[in-house]
Amino acid sequence: MMGCLVLYHRTITSLTKIMILRAMFHEEDFEIHVVEAATVIMYLWNVDKESILQAALIFETENINTGFGFGDCKMDALDEARMILSQSTKLSTTSWAAAK
């Protein structure tokens, strides 16, 4: 199973978000992409849903808008994460959130 986290915050740098994600999931197989100046996407392979949901909760409590998703492939997981993120941040007009 594939997991995905999408982090969005205008003032926290992408480098900072990447460092936090790498520290949280340092023992897991992952891939990180910087999509825009304020957005970072992380894909995780074979990670428990609970770990991803816990990370999403931590980010949300720190006012970092977070989307999370799960699927059989990257696109399914990303689509679910985009949907959750766009509901919480109303960013559906940005290029990465509207792209399919």
What does this structure look like?
The chain is of the alpha+beta class. It has one domain: Reverse transcriptase/Diguanylate cyclase domain (Alpha-Beta Plaits, 2-Layer Sandwich), CATH 3.30.70.270. The chain has four helices and four strands. The protein has helices spanning 14-24, 49-61, 74-89, 95-98, and strands at residues 2-8, 29-36, 39-45, 65-71. The chain has a four-stranded antiparallel β-sheet with strand order 2-3-1-4. The longest helix is centred in the C-terminal third of the chain and has 16 residues, at 74-89. The two termini are 21 Å apart.
Question: Main traits of this protein?
Answer:
single chain, Alpha-Beta Plaits, 100 residues, alpha+beta
SSE topology:
Elements: E1 2-8, H1 14-24, E2 29-36, E3 39-45, H2 49-61, E4 65-71, H3 74-89, H4 95-98
Antiparallel strand pairs: 1-3, 1-4, 2-3
Largest sheet: 4 strands, antiparallel
> What is the arithmetic mean of pLDDT?
89
Strand order of the largest sheet: 2-3-1-4
* N-to-C order of helices and strands: EHEEHEHH
Fourth CATH level, the homologous superfamily:
Reverse transcriptase/Diguanylate cyclase domain
Structural category? alpha+beta
Strand content: 25-35%
Overall 3D geometry?
Answer: globular
Task: Quickly name the level 1 CATH class.
Answer: Alpha Beta
